[in-house]
Amino acid sequence: MRGFAARSTVAEAWSWLDAALPSFDHLNSEDVGLWEAAGRVLARGITSPFHVPAFPRSMMDGYAVRGEETYGASPYNRLPLKVVGRCLPGKPFDRAVAAGQAVQIMTGAPLPEGTDAVVPVEQTERDGETVYVLDPVSPGKHVGQVGEDLRTGAVVLSAGRRLRPQDVGLLSSIGISRVPVIRQPVVRIVITGNELLPAGTPPEGVRIADANGPMLAALVQRDGGRPVDGGLVGDDPEAIARALDEPADVLLVSGGSSVGSEDFVPRLLAERGELAVHGIAMRPSSPAGMGRWGGRLVFLLPGNPVSCLCAYDFFAGRAIRGLGGRSKEWPYRKRQVVLARKLASTVGRVDYARVTIHDDVAEPLAIGGASILSSTTRADGFVVVPADQEGYPAGATVEAWLYD
C-alpha cells in the first residue's frame, strides 16, 4: 500500500476530459417515435414542410361573418344576419357565404368562403335563423391566418435541442412521426468488491448491500445515458478485465479505485489501457480517476457512496451529457444562499459540502463522511469551495447547487 505521489487538480481533470470528448464526438443518430422523443436531443434541425395553419381558421366559438357588415353594431343597434349553416372542425361549410349571411362556427373550424372575421358567441343574440351582432369585428378578427404559426421551410427546432413536451406536440402538428435524435450513450456500470451483496439485499455480518449501482443507474438516466448493469465483480483482476471488455460507450467502475493492495482497477488501466488521471485534489472523491479502455472512456469512481456520487457528477456525468449532445454543465439549479456558520476548507483542494437550506440560509452538514450517503439525502444541495480558498466565513453569500 502507498499513498498518492501527486494529485491532479479538478481543472486538470476537466481539461483532459474535455479534450478527450471531441475524439468520441456525438453518437450516431436514431429515429424514435413521438411518444418516446421527449427528453431526447435532436440530431438535426427540423423544418416545416407546410404552413401551419394550412387554412384560415376560427379562434373562437361564434359566427363567421363579413367584418365590414358588423360596423356600427352595439347592444342598442343590433345588426341582424341570417344564419345559413354550421361549420365544425374537420367539417367545412360547403358553399360561399353571401352578403347579409353568417355561419355558426366552432374554434378550429375552417373559415367559410366569403367570410373574413368571427364574432364571439357572447357578442351575439340568437333568434331562430337570425343572429344579432352586438359588437363590431374588423376583418381578420378572431381568425388564425395561414402560416400564422409556422411558414413552409421555417426552422421549427434546431439540432442539439433537448425536446420538451410542447416541442413533441409541435412536431406532431407538422406531420413528423419519427424524430431524429442522438443515440443515448450506453453506460456499463461495474461494481467491484468482495464485501458487497446485490442491491437491495439486507446486510449479512460484515457484508453490505450495493448502494452505488442503483444510484449510478439513476444518474446515468438523468443525464441521458442508457445504463447497463455490469453486475457485482469480486476483487479479481481478470474478472474485472472481462467486465470492462463488455460492449458499452462509457465504462463506470465503482470501487477498487485507490492505491490499496486490493485496488486493481488503476493498475489494469495503466497496464492494458490508459490511466490518464488518478488521484484528484478534492474532498471527497480524491481516489477518482479516468482514462481509456479499448478506446472507450472509463471512470474510476470510489466505492464510498458520497465519493462515488461526487466523482460521477464532476467527471463521468460531464462526459455522458457531452456525448449525448447535452450541456456538459451540471443539471442542477443554482441558488444564492447565506451560510449560517463558517465553512472551513484547505487551499489547494476543492471541497464538496452538503448543506440544508431554509429561507435562503444554508447550514453546512458535511464535507467529509464519504461513506455516509444519508448526508446527501438529508441535504438540499451542495456548495463547492474552490481550491484557491480557505472556505467561507459565517454570513458569506455563496452559490448552492440544488439536488432537486
TrEMBL record:
Keyword Isomerase among record annotations: no
Swiss-Prot/TrEMBL keywords: Magnesium, Metal-binding, Molybdenum, Molybdenum cofactor biosynthesis, Transferase
Protein name according to UniProt: Molybdopterin molybdenumtransferase
NCBIfam families named among the record's database cross-references: Glp_gephyrin, molyb_syn
EC number: 2.10.1.1
Organism: Schlesneria paludicola
GO biological process, one term: Mo-molybdopterin cofactor biosynthetic process
GO cellular component term of the entry, any: cytosol
Cited function: Catalyzes the insertion of molybdate into adenylated molybdopterin with the concomitant release of AMP.
One Pfam family from the record: MoCF_biosynth
MF terms (GO), sorted A to Z: metal ion binding; molybdopterin molybdotransferase activity
Names of required cofactors: Mg(2+)
Domain of life: Bacteria
SUPFAM superfamilies: MoeA C-terminal domain-like (SSF63867), MoeA N-terminal region -like (SSF63882), Molybdenum cofactor biosynthesis proteins (SSF53218)
Pathway linked to the protein: Cofactor biosynthesis; molybdopterin biosynthesis
Reactions mediated catalytically: adenylyl-molybdopterin + molybdate = Mo-molybdopterin + AMP + H(+)
Similarity comment: Belongs to the MoeA family.
Gene3D superfamilies, A to Z: MoaB/Mog-like domain, MoeA, C-terminal, domain IV, Molybdopterin biosynthesis moea protein, domain 2, Molybdopterin biosynthesis moea protein, domain 3
Presence of keyword Glycosyltransferase: no
First-level EC class: transferase
Matching InterPro entries: MoaB/Mog-like_dom_sf, MoaB/Mog_dom, MoeA-like, MoeA_C_domain_IV, MoeA_C_domain_IV_sf, MoeA_linker/N, MoeA_linker/N_sf
Domain MoaB/Mog span(s) in chain numbering: 188-322
